[in-house]
Amino acid sequence: QTVVTQEPSLTVSPGGTVTLTCASSTGAVTSRYYPNWFQQKPGQAPRALIYSTSDKHSWTPARFSGSLLGGKAALTLAGVQPEDEAEYFCLLYYRDVQSWVFGGGTKLTVL
Amino acid sequence: QVQLVESGGGVVQPGRSLRLSCAGTGFTFSNNDMHWVRQAPGKGLEWVAMISYDGSKKYYAGSVKGRFTISRDNSKNMMFLQMDSLRPEDTAIYSCAKGLMGPLAVTGPLRPPSDFGGQGTLVTVSS
What we know:
The structure holds two protein chains of two kinds.
Chain A: E1 4-6, E2 9-12, E3 17-24, E4 36-40, E5 47-51, E6 55-56, E7 64-69, E8 72-78, E9 86-94, E10 99-102, E11 106-110
Chain B: E1 3-7, E2 10-12, E3 18-25, E4 34-39, E5 45-51, E6 58-60, E7 68-73, E8 78-83, E9 92-99, H1 104-107, E10 113-116, E11 121-125
Parallel strand pairs in B: 2-11
Antiparallel strand pairs in B: 1-3, 3-8, 4-5, 4-9, 5-6, 7-8, 9-10, 9-11
């Protein structure tokens, strides 16, 4: 069974920079996994931030960026704002089984 | 703007069935792939299933394959999830999501979810 792993929690200071990562139990994450990133605040529906590794939706703030880093998908927040405190989920595509798999989520605290 | 409203959840015994619905407005429903995503209470997101814009292609997570069936009625701007042989581990809030628009070369072979519904609908499987 495929497992997608994220840091359970991270803490960052306002104005700081933080990178969240997303690893696959099958090996290195590449662009062929079409990594997506989502933000979810308590009691709210998820909001899509990044698709296809690094492409932003029209509503995605400029301080969010996606990349591949050391065999993982990565989401970097530069100049973190208090309103960025949320849980972040990555989503990877698995071609062999034609399905998407979410990571377990990273709870980001801005403190 | 995009509005997605889920309904049909409830309490059901293990082994029984339930049918969820998703109504889409504010966009051209028949042009969009659609997804079901679920979230167990206090847990993370789990992708469940996707149906292509015309209903011709359907994809499922391994955990529900053979038990759940996704379908749509573009004439009514509706999507459905027929859930059979329900298990306690299927207990979750089920949300529908609109698929990302764009060429497959950019989005990936299965267009990912891009706009989620509101509050979702809670399914509780318990005896």
